[in-house]
Specification:
Elements lengths: L1 H7 L6 H7 L7 H13 L8 E2 H6 L4 E3 L5 E3 L2 H9 L3 H6 L1 E2 L1 E5 L5 E4 L2 H11 L12 E4 H10 L4 E5 L1
Parallel strand pairs: 5-8
Antiparallel strand pairs: 1-4, 2-3, 5-6, 6-7
Length: about 160
C-alpha cells in the first residue's frame, strides 16, 4: 500500500496533475485581487518624470501622479541633489526616483544608476549600498526613511 501512495505522488503524478487539470496554476481570484490592491498602492506614483534641471527652474516644482494629483518637490531637497551632480548629470537625472518594493524581499531596489550615484553622495553612504548588477538595494526601513526625508525626490513603488 505504501509503495502505491509514494508512486502516486512522484513528479507529475497524483495531486499535482489534479491541480493543473483543475486550472489552479492559472491566475485566479486571489491573483486578481492582489493586482487590484497593488494598483491602488501605486495610484500615487508619478507617470511623467522631469529632469532635475527643469524642476529647479520651476517656482513650485511638481509632477503629476497617475490619478492626476500633484507630486510636489521640496526645493531644498532638489538643491541638495543638484549640489552633488554636474550640469549634464542634472539634465539627465529624472525625478522622482522610484524605489521598488516587493513582498518577497526585504529590500527596496533603485535601478537608476545616476539616481543611485546622487543618492549615495547626498546620504554620504561611502562604501554602503553600492550600485551593482544594475541595481542599488537598501533595506525597507531605510527606504521609507529616505522617502520621508528627501521631499518628493524619492517615491516607493510596490509590486
Amino acid at each position: 500500500m505504501r509503495e502505491s501512495i509514494e508512486k502516486d505522488f512522484e513528479a507529475g503524478q497524483g495531486l499535482i496533475d489534479v491541480c493543473r487539470w483543475a486550472g489552479v496554476d492559472g491566475p485566479g481570484p486571489l491573483d486578481r485581487w492582489i493586482s487590484l490592491e497593488l494598483g491602488r498602492l501605486n495610484s500615487g506614483l508619478v507617470v511623467e518624470t522631469k529632469s532635475l534641471t527643469r524642476l529647479l527652474g520651476e517656482s513650485d516644482p511638481a509632477c503629476c501622479t497617475r490619478e492626476g494629483d500633484l507630486h510636489p518637490f521640496d526645493p531644498q531637497a532638489l538643491a541638495r541633489f543638484a549640489s552633488v551632480l554636474t550640469r549634464e548629470e542634472a539634465d539627465a537625472l529624472r525625478l522622482p526616483l522610484t524605489l521598488r518594493v516587493r513582498g518577497d524581499s526585504d529590500e527596496a531596489i533603485l535601478t537608476d544608476e545616476l539616481g543611485a550615484k546622487a543618492l549615495r553622495a547626498v546620504e554620504k553612504f561611502d562604501q554602503a549600498f553600492r550600485f551593482r548588477d544594475g541595481r542599488m538595494a537598501v533595506p525597507h526601513s531605510l527606504a521609507i526613511d529616505l522617502v520621508r526625508r528627501h521631499g518628493g525626490v524619492l517615491q516607493l513603488g510596490f509590486g
